[in-house]
Design a protein that fits this description.
4% strand, 41 helices, FAST_kinase, 6-stranded mixed sheet, mainly alpha, FAST_Leu-rich
């Protein structure tokens, strides 16, 4: 409500008997003038006067930049106390609108939620709740959220009213405010209804009002549901507003997107441009901190250096929260320029945990600082135990305090599966670091691990809702989960197989890919659900859905139909998919030996690659590198398997750079195989190690057999050259040249050792990536000999003679068949 609206609303009806006090309030333009009117007319002030005065005080503050607001000065003014006392005494006289408006304004002016005035206003609002308009109800919900009363009975009452009257809400601003308020208490049915209503009302929302779509995104974050169609609709409105947004609002939206794992190329490019425009005007600690946090991770090296130099100049002016934001941004860009010791005394343990993690990931060395951090981290609340336990385990320490073990033990029965996994990682590290570990595992750790194992099994056995289970398992990983719970997890998923539907399939398939366990009944059921409801599934989810089928190399019963419907679902939306996601999808399809012409031709165009290149500059470093790698893999697959597309190979320089960064000696098994190959091939000059093929595959060992299967020595220096990295490169670049380099009837043999990562974790089924590599090496003219780890390390091959005979059969007998 603007000051002018407040004035108009509270004008006296008549022009003859004018309210002089109200007239005097209306003409005030600053706080001091208003307080002067209040002081001179204490005895005359009515409910309307108090309401107008308090509303105007908040409006004066709202119209000022954050740095220029003077809320503390207002709160300490004697006449503000007068307004508070009068308001509390006149609560019964307030109409519904004034009551809620007064509560809202006082909270915005930082009156303590525990103040008797606020308590009485809330109590009176509860008594009148059922007769409130939806506008007043939404403002009250906002007030309760400000007071952290998300789970209160009063918010529950509001949730019930919203459920009953949802169809009557036609204002998107009112609806989205209510959505945020009730998000913690809404049932799944009400959540879906709220999403559908918001989707409908957004179509008629003013495109310049960015707060409404922002609240929708925040609601989706609160309920942890990435509803792609609604997200994209919100993103479209937010994109229109980027040129007018400041760094603070941009940061809020980016944080919400990150929590929902929503990446949008156009949004990130627009944000990068807008933040760059704000560089010159962001010179104070408040605006600069927000700019630094948002821009640094996606900025060029030149801009990053500029940001860091400005941060160093402002470091003494940063408050505790600003220093924390800068420290976390520095972690993202791998810089160690700033230290935040001067604010340690004001940080909460959870904030200290974030600082500690940033410093450790930056490999910052300061034992004295880490000792201080450790001391603060030990003072925790129960709900903080999991996060702080993980960070404590990262700090250098030879022995963990008994109080830490007891606190973990006290909360472990209440932990989710994800929390249990996090704690298990910390306990494993404490066990290894304990001085007595070399003799035996200390009993205190044994008891804790036994309790965790029992809790994990019980949680899986009692789980009855797939959606909740998937939420707990979303980020779970580590040895404890794989050794203790993975079998139970797969059993639980099979028990809930009838709960699989089109809404939870993407989360389930991502989980199955990460676990790496192949379960044909689950995969077949997923395929049938996807085929049946493909029209309901958002096109951006297709990559996640196909991933386990390609990665785990499993063809369901309806494999052809599955891939066909998924490809047809994506093709109409190719141009709207984020570039990096389209690359991932195409690579996923290539693993399955599938190359849809529409997708391949779209990716290998100048326009698309230019858009991808622009997007890469805005992505986090890890995602950037992964996208570049997948584009190279796809480029290689298309060149080798689909020459009819006439896609050029343009990754020579990239692959050469990867080789320079790589290196390292082979595993003990590979070194063992190398020595034995020299024996069975009659000399080390008949075997080459780490051979780099055209299109830059690196094979473990290579040998050449003539038409009589006799090994040939590598005597011609023109055929093979040693690189600086001690890797062997072929001469010539085309497949034709490769084949011509061999004597008539001879064959190149590639010998690859396949470690456990090459196979599904619960079977000897080779994964899709290894299978594609084999296809490509065969196209390059190799006969591929694979040495699986489970055969090489089996009891049958426990002597030198047995190993040699195994290799001899693989190379010579299989070659003659």
């Amino acid at each position: 409500m603007s000051v002018e609206l407040c004035r108009r609303r509270l004008l006296h009806r008549g022009t003859v008997n004018r309210d002089q006090v109200l007239d005097q309030l209306r003409v005030c333009s600053v706080e001091d003038q208003l307080f002067d009117v209040v002081g001179k007319n204490k005895a005359k002030l009515t409910v309307n006067h108090v309401s107008c005065a308090v509303g105007m005080l908040w409006q004066f503050q709202k119209e000022k930049p954050q740095l220029l607001r003077t809320v503390d000065l207002i709160k300490s003014h004697p006449q503000f106390l007068t307004l508070r006392v009068l308001a509390e005494n006149k609560i019964a006289l307030m109409d519904d609108f004034v009551l809620v408006d007064m509560l809202y304004s006082f909270l915005r002016l930082n009156v303590d939620p525990h103040d008797s005035l606020v308590q009485h206003l809330v109590s009176e609002a509860w008594l009148r709740l059922d007769r409130f308009s939806m506008a007043s109800l939404s403002k009250l919900a906002n007030c309760l959220s400000d007071q952290q009363l998300h789970h209160s009975p009063l918010m529950g009452h509001i949730t019930n009213i919203v459920d009953q009257k949802l169809s009557t809400i036609d204002d998107a601003r009112i609806l989205t405010t209510l959505m945020l308020g009730v998000s913690s208490l809404a049932s799944p049915r009400l959540r879906d209804a709220l999403i559908n209503r918001a989707d409908l009302l957004l179509d008629n929302t003013d495109a310049s009002n960015y707060n409404t779509p922002r609240r929708v995104v925040q609601f989706l974050r609160n309920i942890r549901q990435s509803h792609r169609p609604l997200l994209e609709k919100c993103n479209k409105i937010l994109l229109c507003n980027i040129p007018t947004l400041d760094a603070e609002n941009i940061g809020i939206i980016m944080g919400l997107y990150q929590a929902l794992q929503f990446n949008n190329c156009d949004f990130r490019l627009a944000v990068k441009q807008r933040l760059t425009e704000l560089l010159d005007s962001s010179n104070d600690p408040f605006s600069f901190t927000r700019l630094f946090f948002c821009l640094a991770p996606m900025a060029s090296q030149e801009v990053r250096e500029r940001l860091q130099n400005t941060a160093l100049l402002l470091v003494d002016e940063l408050n505790a929260q600003q220093a924390l934001a800068v420290a976390e941004a520095l972690e993202d860009i791998q810089s160690r320029n700033l230290i935040i010791q001067r604010h340690l005394h004001v940080y909460k343990p959870v904030e200290v945990a974030r600082i500690t993690q940033a410093l450790l990931l930056l490999q910052y060395q300061n034992p004295e600082l880490f000792t201080k951090l450790r001391t603060i981290l030990l003072n925790v609340f129960p709900y903080e135990v999991t996060m702080l336990t993980r960070v404590l385990s990262m700090l250098p320490c030879s022995r963990i305090e008994e109080c830490v073990i007891s606190r973990v033990d006290a909360v472990v029965t209440q932990c989710s599966l994800s929390d249990l996994s996090t704690i298990s990682f910390a306990v494993a590290k404490w066990v290894r670091n304990d001085p007595s570990y070399r003799h035996n595992t200390p009993s205190r750790y044994v008891r804790l691990l036994q309790t965790m194992n029992r809790c994990g099994h019980e949680r899986l056995q009692t789980a009855d809702r797939l959606d909740l289970l998937l939420d707990e398992l979303k980020y779970i990983s580590g040895e404890w989960f794989e050794e203790i719970l993975v079998e139970d997890t797969m059993g639980t998923l099979q028990r809930m197989i009838n709960q699989i539907n089109w809404t939870n399939v993407p989360d389930l398939t991502l989980l199955l890919t990460r676990i790496g366990h192949l379960c044909p009944p689950l995969m077949d059921h997923i395929a049938s659900v996807v085929i049946k409801d493909i029209d309901k599934i958002h096109h951006s989810a297709i990559y996640a859905i196909l991933l386990p089928f390609s990665v785990l190399n499993y063809d369901p019963v309806q494999a052809d139909e599955l891939y066909d419907v998924c490809i047809q679902r994506v093709i109409p939306h190719i141009s709207s998919l984020d570039p990096h996601l389209l690359v991932f999808l195409a690579y996923c399809l290539a693993l399955a030996d599938c190359f849809p012409g529409e997708i391949i031709k779209e990716i290998f165009t100048i326009d698309f690659l230019g858009k991808l290149d622009a997007q890469l500059d805005t992505l986090p470093d890890v995602l950037n590198m992964r996208t570049r790698l997948r584009l190279m893999d796809l480029n290689r697959a298309v060149c080798l398997q689909c020459p009819e597309f006439q896609v050029p190979w343009f990754h020579d320089r990239y692959c050469q750079q990867l080789q320079k960064k790589g290196g390292g000696s082979g595993s003990s098994a590979q070194q063992q195989i190398h020595k034995m190959l020299g024996d069975i091939l009659d000399g080390m000059n008949r075997v080459r190690v780490a051979v780099v093929t055209p299109y830059f595959y690196t094979i473990d060992f290579e040998c050449i057999l003539d038409r009589n299967l006799q090994p040939l020595p590598y005597s011609e220096p023109s055929a093979l050259q040693m690189s600086d990295g001690e890797k062997v490169h072929w001469g010539g670049g085309s497949v034709e040249n490769i084949r011509e380099a061999l004597p008539p009837g001879a064959q190149r043999v590639a010998v690859d050792f396949l470690d456990s990562k090459t196979f599904c974790k619960n079977s000897h089924r080779m994964k899709g990536e290894a299978l594609m590599r084999k296809r490509h090496l065969e196209i390059l003219g190799y006969r591929v000999v694979q040495v699986p780890h489970y055969e090489w390390n089996s009891m049958e091959l426990s002597t030198q003679d047995a190993w040699k005979e195994y290799l001899r059969k693989k190379i010579f007998k299989e070659g003659s068949s």
